[in-house]
Amino acid sequence: MKPAPFEYSAPSSLDEAVETLARHGEAAKVLAGGQSLVPMLNMRLVRPSVLVSLRRLASLDYVAVEDGCTRIGSMTRQRVVEQHPAVRESSPILAEALGLVAHPAIRNLGTIGGSVAHADPAAELPAVLVAMDGTVTLVSTRGRRTLPASEFFCGLMTTAAEPDELIAELGFHRVGRAALASGWAVEEVSRRHGDFALAGVVVALAADSDGCLADARIALFGVEDRPTRRPEAEGALRGTRGEPPAIAEAAALAVRDVDALEDLHASARLRAHLAGVLVKRALERASRKAIRDG
Amino acid sequence: MAEPVRIALRVNGEDRTAVVEPRESLADCLREHLGLTGTHLGCEHGVCGACTVIVNGRTARTCLLLAVEADGSQIITVEGVATGDALHPIQQAFMEEHGLQCGFCTPGFVMTLYQLFRERPEADEAEIREHLGGNLCRCTGYQNIVVAAVKAAARLREARVGQ
User: A181-292 falls under which CATH superfamily?
Assistant: First the structure.
């Protein structure tokens, strides 16, 4: 349970970091908070010859909220984001989701960029990013590019980031216009609190002044090989008042044609079943917030 | 081959240095280089919480933190919580309430609670349970650990009022 030997580099600037990555290509791994990568190193599931640590890059540690978009530097610790007053105000769904990530000691070191780069299909943060039409900004010596979250996650622990790129920033966009009342919920089932979810869902709703849903977002996690939106279910909810039949129909649509993972923790059938139950539960809670309390 | 790196740490109020391989965890550095064997390594992949210490005012799992990444940090380990021969109120309560059986997990529990009570002295049983969710006790003595934690929290609050 000790990592194989590697060279360690802790560049003091972003330029130096991307140059180091470009020099080593696939032999290098980026080390952010280490809460996903170090277990994999310890178990020798990955054996990079070079680790490029981002610990000195204070320029990647920030939270900025403007015009309904919350931009967060990739090296910002999950616990900092979870407790950040501006995040709790502008993106409470993010704070709720982070509260379900492992345990406080893990979130103290774990970064938001690291969770997204690791792309575990059962992780909460990638699902929030997908639900909120979020963006991932990558940098390399070749320049900077921003991808929609839906294009960033490609499959099981696989992303669109090239070996010479690192994540600089995540962008979370508000659901619905500023004037709309919003409701959200993150629901998951895990064997123990803090474990990766067997199935989970992120729901975000926005309602107009008549109490009709103007926008609905549903993203499943821990079900398919990446976090995925459920456009049919979202479409079925728009224009409704989130009444029980509308929610039941959306929950059924959300898991129709779901391509659920199967492993020793849960069968595909169990995952699909749990997902349906969780979507219903999350929609009930979110619509109460958006419509009844809104 | 990776070059060893000299790191400087402030551990329990003392300046210490160590020469470590980049792949060494902070837990191994504390135990093997600094002789602080109170920090226990259980699962070595961040699940059990036994190796929890305080790094720069926050709890961290030292099996998931490379020693080189902790260079320059302020660290408190379980060796740093007592005052001379007087146990810390958390340790005292664990002793009185039978909050440990084999004792392997205890340092992690003590350090998790130490930081929780520094941040949230008013933490109630529910909050204590939530925070201890990341620490495993394979003797499964959770009930008495929670009883001890609640008692320690109350004593720490009383001591604060008394000051």
Answer: CO dehydrogenase flavoprotein, C-terminal domain (3.30.390.50)
